[in-house]
Specification:
With 478 residues, this protein is α/β, with parallel strands linked by helices. Helix content is 43%, strand content 14%. Helix 2 links the parallel strand 5 and strand 6.
């Protein structure tokens, strides 16, 4: 039958893994791939429902086994989890707390028949695990988006184009919406992936230091220049350089940057030696650069050079479907970091997080989740672990209309009401431009039109109402 990615062996001990692999090949004529524990996150998606056989040959392996089990369960990933352990691991009892979360436990070499029967069941039809070594760029991008930000999967085709072509990319979105993540995704899926990915926060640099940070300086170029400094454009080599908050650059520095983009040439401060930038440039901004161009604070020619390919990231309040996957991924991340045995997030806590408008977007959400994980106890993240700010509406942005916080209907009704409210807000913010509203929402114009038709928003007299006002008022008074 050959190899099957419906069944994957995960092991630290490659010798034991090879023995188990050979046994399964003889028994069911299938070669199960062997991966390391640290590679498991690259295999899993909310769609893959194959089986992982976690090998533990030594009690020290228990920590790696627990991490995989815990992170898989807390993220609601459908992969089946079973454990094969040696006598010494079974005797240690270190894996006993995992019994409620795993399907089978085998002791090697005492349970070969039981293992064979399990393997036969594991090969049932379904979605196999990803194979990072052979999957296409589109599959890689989609896998990474769907795990944490499913609303952005509409961007897969454009992100593939950005990854395949060595052109400048502009990413626009509010602070904390994931611009760095998107830039890193483009880099990781490009031919430059083996080289450096550097982030330059333009907004943190004072005007007289920007040229030195960008281009470096020669020794003695100014009073404190005691040695030669290599700038970011040289240090990036043939990698990617992300210029974050590019809108904060003054016109003089914009002119220098334009020259680098057009010719690749620059000179370190205090030097007459012309150097070549070999890095790819990605720019990010918290503001609409087109508006900055009209105001005269951003060069039009530089804007056009940056705008070869562009992406607009909607604020998190317009992406409620992303909050669940984001929260679960963060709980998995910080649960591991702080050695917390969290296997789930209670529905009430998740509803509270989904209801909050998140003016600080993903960055604020991550801070709240990190605090909650730190204060948690037990196997479940509960609502009382959350910061009080989640239940307060005082820091909601002024442009934000109330979002759902505990609707007394079905999940389908809640989702539809949330979608309708988000579409109305986007249209309002975009001055009723469907094209711009679709960009803010991260969907195509056709999808937006279909949604508007489904929610009766195409008529001129469509009622502009926002649901859940009554509940939000109760929540605000609670």
């Amino acid at each position: 039958m050959g190899s099957s990615r419906r069944l994957v062996i995960v092991a630290q001990d490659q010798r034991l893994a090879s023995v188990v692999q050979s046994h399964l090949h003889r028994a069911i004529q299938v070669t199960a791939p062997i991966v390391r524990y640290e590679d498991v996150p690259n295999l899993l998606t909310p769609e893959t429902d194959g089986d992982l056989l976690l090998l533990a040959s030594d009690p020290a392996d228990a920590s790696a086994v627990e991490t995989v089990v815990r992170e898989t369960k807390v993220q609601h990933l459908p992969a089946g989890l079973s454990v094969l352990e040696t006598d010494v691991v079974r005797a240690s009892g270190k894996l006993d707390p995992l019994n409620p979360y795993i399907a089978e436990r085998f002791v090697w070499p005492h349970h070969p028949r039981e293992l064979t029967a399990w393997a036969h069941r594991a090969l049932a039809p379904g979605t196999p695990f990803a194979d990072p070594a052979t999957e296409s760029v589109a599959e890689t991008i989609r896998r990474r988006l769907i795990n944490h930000t499913p609303s952005l999967t509409a961007m897969v085709e454009q992100l593939c184009i950005a990854s395949a072509h060595d052109v400048t990319v502009l990413i626009e979105g509010e602070t904390g919406t994931g611009k760095t993540f998107l830039a890193k995704l483009v880099h990781d899926c490009s031919e430059r992936r083996a080289n450096r990915f550097l982030v330059v926060s333009c907004g943190t640099l004072s005007g007289n230091l920007i040229a030195s940070e960008f281009f470096g300086h020669a020794k003695g170029a100014f009073t404190s220049a005691d040695a030669v400094k290599v700038g970011k454009f040289a240090a990036a080599g043939e990698g990617t350089i992300l210029l974050d908050e590019i809108d904060t650059l003054g016109l003089e520095h914009q002119a220098n940057l334009l020259r680098v983009i057009e010719t690749g040439e620059f000179e370190p401060v205090g030097s007459n030696e012309t150097q070549l930038c070999r890095a790819r440039i990605v720019a990010a901004t918290n503001w609409n650069l087109a508006d900055a161009v009209e105001r005269g604070t951003f060069r039009r020619d530089l804007y056009y050079r940056l705008h070869v390919l562009s992406f607009q990231l909607p604020a998190l309040r317009y992406r409620p479907e992303d909050i669940g996957p984001l929260v679960r991924g963060m709980v998995a991340k910080y649960g591991t970091k702080y050695s917390k045995r969290l296997f789930s997030v209670c529905p009430e806590a998740l509803r509270a997080l989904e209801a909050f408008p998140w003016p600080g977007n993903i960055r604020q959400l991550e801070n709240v989740v990190q605090q909650a994980v730190l204060t948690s106890a037990g196997n479940e993240l509960k609502v009382h672990h959350l910061s009080p700010q989640v239940f307060s509406r005082t820091d909601a942005p002024t442009v934000m209309m109330p979002l759902p916080t505990g609707f007394d209907g079905t999940l389908k009704q809640t989702r539809e009401a949330t979608e309708r409210a988000n579409i109305l807000r986007a249209l309002e913010k975009a001055n009723q431009s469907r094209t711009r509203a679709a960009q803010m929402l991260g969907v195509s114009r056709v999808t937006l039109y279909k949604k508007m038709r489904a929610y009766n928003l195409l008529k001129k007299d469509a009622p502009v109402t926002y649901p859940f006002d009554e509940f939000n008022q109760r929540a605000g008074n609670a």
